[in-house]
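input
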Amino acid sequence: MMKFILIFIINFYIGGINAFVPLPRAEVTANLVNNKIYFHGGWNGSLSSDFFYLDVSVPFTTNDVASMPWTDLTSIPGLIIRSGHTACIHGTNIFYIGGMKETDLNFTSAFDVMAQKWSVPVTSGNLTSTVRLYFLQEMEYTSMEDGVIYLV
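output
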């Protein structure tokens, strides 16, 4: 056991810690839920598939980005790659709407931060391709009241 601990300490000292550090990006959403800022998608030269959060309940300094408490959630099944989308919060769910997407045709998706699970919410209405294109390119703000999402 002592040999294992010694090897771990030496490896840690020589190799350091390879922490998750997100790349800079544009057209990303950032939503604060339960002292965590959830970042989804964006554009960093191509569509970003990243989904992660920054835990702001833990003290950190912005001088060393690698030491900030980032947590990568990209590997959770159901992630839709988006850029230029919008999002709103309802309870412990973050609803993502529109944006430029690579393959998935779902206009909306939701992430439950407590269950750590993606879902596709049931929506009503009929968005024509023209309206969908407008929303994909021009949507800027959403709010949610009484279970209804309003797009401006």
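quick obs: Residues 26-151 form a domain with the Neuraminidase fold (CATH 2.120.10.80).
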